[in-house]
Design brief:
The chain is α/β, with parallel strands linked by helices and 426 residues long. It has one domain: Rossmann fold. It has helices spanning 105-115, 161-169, 209-237, 257-268, 301-308, 321-341, 363-366, 386-405; strands at residues 54-69, 72-87, 131-133, 144-150, 173-178, 185-187, 193-195, 245-255, 272-278, 295-300, 346-351, 422-425. The chain has a ten-stranded mixed β-sheet with strand order 3-1-2-5-4-8-9-10-11-12, sandwiched between helices. Helix 2 (161-169) crosses helix 8 and helix 3 (209-237) crosses helix 4. It is globular, with a radius of gyration of 20 Å. The termini are close together. GO terms for molecular function: hydrolase activity. InterPro entries: AB_hydrolase_fold. This is Alpha/beta fold hydrolase.
């Protein structure tokens, strides 16, 4: 495989917009905003899933009592996790649909206010997610492989349902982590709201190499490892998932900074079998440790142009010459790391057709709910993302089928793949 690095500045500085997925309505707290959840009332529809299963979803709040929260030193590290999993229509008769944003009105308003999403965004739960809230796990298989998902910096775990729902429909249990302080905001089940840390708001800071390495290694990767521990408990005690999680077949997938965390977790965590970095840089890597397990890198045409020298990595306006030089040197470091570290089976995958960094989130779909705001722009959220979702899901599903389920003759095994807007190099 050609050794490359995805050096999108968006991976560490661009906030593309999202909601944290969380469960409310218990212990006397505010219930989720009630909407009709009818397709005909929604401004948009999510893509229909293509796998054999229907999809259920549930959420957990977990506290890692062994860790101090480095961004909130007075408290232990606490996470919100949403799980999408295979389910069956027949076993969910009468079950409610999972709201797109299962959060209280207060929590939604805090996010809208912080990021100037506009009033229309409060109606996002008109969308029919096609997902059963707390639905029953399908019993078609004895166990299901697990996919750990990490969102991008400033994007929340709810914002990738183009993929999380799709993977669940194909028989994967997707455990999506909301990395507290790094997302648009996390609302826990007792009503507490944890906002994004101020240093990650647009324009508040220029990334520093050592600082971001620390974030990935000492927070994001440890979040992933903690969730793996919690899954062991679920597999022993949880009513829904008891003995159903195939913890010998775990993959890590992430976008942007979450992609960096997924790749680094593959490098250091023995229980993770394979990983996908979606348009992310290689923050947190060290040159002294190799990554020998199956790995895929999915990138955009724009990123490919940066890597081949056909275009120069854009930087924010108004930087002094020293800061510009430091950022460019930082990107070179990431590139050198990847050159030295990746020694195992790896796939270089490029998605063309107008894909940009934000195409790998739900936000292009949700653009009608951002009408009249600063986010209503082709440069931020391009129109018609569904062909990009379709291509991306095709390679992601096949990579996971190959590395977790041992499937042969996947799209990754074919020597001459002739699919428009897709390039795969091994």
């Amino acid at each position: 495989m050609k050794k490359i690095m995805i050096s999108t500045l968006a991976a560490v500085t661009l906030l593309s917009g999202a909601f944290s997925a969380s469960a409310q309505g218990t212990n006397g707290k505010e219930a989720p905003i009630e909407h009709s959840i009818k397709s005909e009332d929604a401004l948009v529809n999510l893509p229909k899933t293509t796998g054999e299963y229907k999809v259920g979803s549930t959420t957990y709040d977990w506290v890692d009592t062994s860790r101090i929260d480095l961004l909130d030193p007075k408290n232990k590290r606490e996470l919100k996790v949403q799980v999408w999993y295979p389910s069956d229509k027949a076993s969910n008769k009468g079950k409610k649909k999972e709201p797109y944003l299962p959060m209280t009105e207060k929590g939604i308003n805090q996010i809208i206010s912080t990021f100037s999403f506009g009033d229309l965004f409060a109606d996002v739960n008109d969308i029919n997610t096609q997902v059963y809230k707390d639905g029953r796990l399908s019993n078609k298989k004895n166990k299901y492989p697990v996919v750990l998902f990490s969102h991008g910096l400033g994007v929340s775990n709810w914002n990738y349902q183009w993929m999380t729902r799709e993977l669940a429909s194909h028989g994967f249990i997707v455990v999506s982590i909301d990395h507290s302080h790094f997302s648009f905001g996390t609302e826990f089940q007792d009503g507490r709201f944890m906002p994004i840390a101020s240093q990650f708001l647009p324009g508040n800071a220029i990334p520093q190499l050592d600082e971001y390495d620390d974030y990935v290694n000492n927070i994001w990767v440890k979040d992933i490892q903690f969730v793996i521990q919690q899954l062991g408990t679920l597999n022993k005690k949880d009513k829904k998932f008891k003995n159903k999680l195939d913890l010998k077949n775990i993959a890590a997938v992430g976008h942007s900074m979450g992609g960096a965390a997924a790749a680094r977790a593959l490098q250091v965590e023995p229980k993770i079998k394979s990983a996908i970095n979606i348009d992310g840089s290689f923050i947190g890597f060290t040159e002294t440790e190799t990554m020998t397990k199956p790995f895929a890198l999915i990138k955009t045409e724009m990123s490919e142009m940066f890597l081949t020298g056909k275009a120069e990595q854009p930087l924010p306006e108004g930087l002094d010459s020293q800061t510009e030089q430091e950022l460019r040197e930082m990107f070179k470091v990431y590139n050198n790391r990847y050159e030295q570290v990746v020694t195992g089976p790896a796939y270089d995958i490029t998605i063309y057709g107008g894909a940009i960094h934000n195409s790998f989130t739900d936000m292009p779909l949700l653009r009608p709910y951002l009408s009249g705001t600063m986010y209503d722009s082709d440069s931020i959220f391009p129109a018609n993302p569904e062909p990009i979702y379709e291509l991306s899901n095709q390679v992601i599903v096949d990579f996971l089928e190959k590395t977790l389920n041992g499937k042969k003759n996947t799209i990754l095994d074919r020597r001459n793949v002739n699919i428009p807007n897709l390039k795969i190099v091994q």
